[in-house]
Write a structure and sequence with these properties.
This protein is α/β, with parallel strands linked by helices. Helix content is 32%, strand content 15%. It has two domains: 169 residues, Rossmann fold, CATH 3.40.50; 161 residues, Aspartate/ornithine carbamoyltransferase (Rossmann fold), CATH 3.40.50. Helix 4 packs across helix 12. The structure holds phosphoric acid mono(formamide)ester.
Length: 364
């Protein structure tokens, strides 16, 4: 590693309380002794990302390694997206996704056209998404879109000729959220990303408190977890719904050959879980619904000592603030790390990898 990059190490912005190191796993462990394979990331250039199924496992791992470099070193002096314009078109509410994408673009010296809600566009006059997509072609180099309708990505892609990144489509998917989720997990257990099988840890038991079929972030997380099925011993879905998956997910679970079970009994299973992914907000029909809210965790819950909790946020009563300063909290690392993971994706999709500093650790 060059001295120049060492000198430009980033200032930490999320210091964990003493003794709770999992709150802030160090990014360096993801790329030291495991350099980035840029040839894998180059395959993402110009690609639209609508679903987790648009990624391969090696792409997720290389994106996480690049994100870790971006988190570890100050990259602003390299102006990596200088000259690129990104539109963030949010036809549905967001705190984290829109702002972290915009922060990611601005930190790379790109420019942002921001639509914070659909009411400021021609949608208000009845304009179609297909026509709006045609306009985007002239205004920007990439579109990041969130919408209440599940078929919105498919519709805008009918006219869009610049890459689209799906930032959440109704009850469909949220693929960049699962990139952020897995970035947090890979920092926590870097051996999951190691090419050396002997460095990999024991298989983990993954618990989901929520309804993947109705919660796009949970669905995308589960789909991405299937890419790492050799590291997961079992998936346990704890839901109030008798069928929390829907047909597509059952097919994917069975194709991956992963062991899974559905239960409504949290108390019976929670103490055996290594990773807990939870959420209670679903966008159903035309409004937000609070599902599975009876499953609540707090610092007195019967968790394994080294279990970690992920949550896409926003949270309601299911995730008590008393867990925030415990070693179970991976959700703040997950939310903060999203900026760097989204930077890595933007650099790759916009074809800007050649502007990365030559000193970063890459496969030669
Ligand atoms: N995780 C997530 O999608 O958060 P926002 O709805 O705030 O973007």
């Amino acid at each position: 590693m060059s001295e120049k990059l060492e000198l430009n190490k980033r200032i930490e912005f999320l210091e964990p309380p003493e003794g709770t190191e999992t709150l802030r796993p160090k990014p360096v462990s993801l790329f030291e002794n495991n350099p980035i394979d840029l040839s894998v990331l180059k395959k993402l250039e110009g690609r639209s990302i609508v679903s987790v199924k648009d990624f391969e496992r090696d792409e997720v791992i290389e994106l996480a390694k690049l994100a870790a470099v971006l988190e570890n070193f100050e990259i602003a002096p390299y102006h990596i997206m200088d000259g690129k314009i990104v539109t963030t078109a949010f036809f549905e509410a967001s705190t984290r996704t829109r702002l972290s994408f915009e922060s990611a673009v601005l930190r790379l010296d790109g420019k942002v056209l921001s639509i914070p809600e659909g009411g400021v566009t021609g949608v208000r006059k009845g304009e179609s998404l297909e026509d709006i997509g045609e306009m985007f072609n002239a205004y920007c180099d990439m579109v990041i879109m969130r919408h209440t309708e599940t078929d919105s990505a498919e519709r805008v892609l009918k006219s869009l000729r610049v890459p689209l990144i799906n930032a959440g489509n109704g009850s469909g998917e949220h693929p960049t959220q699962s990139l952020a989720d897995w970035y947090a997990l890979l920092k926590w257990k870097p051996e999951l990303a190691s090419p050396d099988p002997s460095k990999r840890n024991k298989r983990m038991r993954l618990g989901i408190l929520g309804t993947p079929g109705s919660m796009r972030a949970v669905k995308s997380f589960l789909l991405m977890s299937l890419m790492f099925q050799d590291r997961i011993s079992r998936v346990i879905v704890i839901s109030q719904m008798a069928d929390p998956f829907g047909d597509d997910l059952v097919h994917e679970l069975e194709k991956a050959g992963i062991k899974y079970q559905v239960t409504n009994d949290m108390q019976k299973h929670v103490s055996k879980l290594d990773i807990i992914y939870m959420n209670s907000i679903a966008f159903l029909g035309d409004s937000y619904k609070n599902l599975d809210s009876e499953y609540q965790l707090n610092r007195n819950s019967d968790l394994k000592e080294d279990a970690v909790i992920l949550h896409p946020l926003a949270r309601l009563s299911e995730l008590d603030c008393s867990l925030d300063d415990t070693a179970h909290n991976l959700y703040f690392s997950q939310a903060h790390g999203a900026v760097f993971m989204r930077q890595a994706l933007l650099i790759s999709v916009s074809g800007s990898l050649n502007r990365l500093p030559k000193e970063i650790p890459t496969v030669k």
